[in-house]
Amino acid sequence: MRLLEEKIISDGKVVSENVLKVDSFLNHQVDPALMFEIGKEFAARFAGDGITKIVTIESSGIAPAVMAGLQMNVPVIFARKRKSLTLVDDLLTASVHSFTKKETNEISISKKYLNENDRVLIIDDFLANGQAAVALVELVHQADAEVAGIGIVIEKSFQPGGKQLRNLGYRVESLARIDSLLNGTVSFINEKSEELI
Amino acid sequence: MRLLEEKIISDGKVVSENVLKVDSFLNHQVDPALMFEIGKEFAARFAGDGITKIVTIESSGIAPAVMAGLQMNVPVIFARKRKSLTLVDDLLTASVHSFTKKETNEISISKKYLNENDRVLIIDDFLANGQAAVALVELVHQADAEVAGIGIVIEKSFQPGGKQLRNLGYRVESLARIDSLLNGTVSFINEKSEELI
Lengths: 197, 197
Hints:
The structure is a homodimer. By secondary structure, chain A is an alpha/beta fold.
């Protein structure tokens, strides 16, 4: 998605060979107009796939997921990283380890919002090692619902998550796929050239 | 806001005299079309007030805040409840106690996204004791920015937060104001009758 790639180039900051900081428009300060376009793009890529629900994880997944839900006219559920006292019964739960934050969280979704008739689009802001996405897939399966696809805003393709999920048979649509962050520079995978390989 | 009040009546659950559960459309499962209308309503109420930024707090404030930002064409910043390893330097911080979750969190915003030229609209999903809103006000003041107003999706007017903030001189616009949850029933404040008092 060219608009997103341009935003990453202009406003993203390469912190190290593994870390791209996009907290000026995606995961701390949020650009609502860009999120709206991201929602449109997800809706276009998964049009006609019979999606009934979007599932994401707090907090950075919420903005792109809600914009996609607006376009696709389906509810959005965000998995919570901790139990709250008003949301304790009948939870689906899975563990997710964050390499960035160096911690393991239990994430959960209330059982009543997913069932065996749902075709779920999983959306998240980043895909790197795939820990969060795999945990969300697990929650969807616990509800006997179907994973129709996984929509990612930024995939760091040099880390293993995307490949693993595709090898497991899941359709992963990443709006920007980063090939490398070497030498302080963001290089994207050119989708067209990749298709020729 | 009638649409919101109708949704609270039809889909909200009165758990106790103090707790209204709206996790079917606001703070776990999210209704994107309703959030869009909520964003429009906030934009209408604060039109012409020179808002330059919206500030909210993860996670439940994000959806309404981003929809308001879309309508008002301004960036949205969500305060984080914990420091992440990629967001450590130059933080504005404040403490917020959650009576619901029975815990105190430090919330933070990166200094670089707020400055003395900003007129800030604070948005959150709930206003009860006002702890979160007061902490967000504190963050805005730390940046020498101005609080132009506070936009709340659901105010529990029988708890003290709204009154305290208004007494401090802040303009608080709540889209639904709940007078009472007694006997398992949601009663709203009738804005017109209140104005006559």
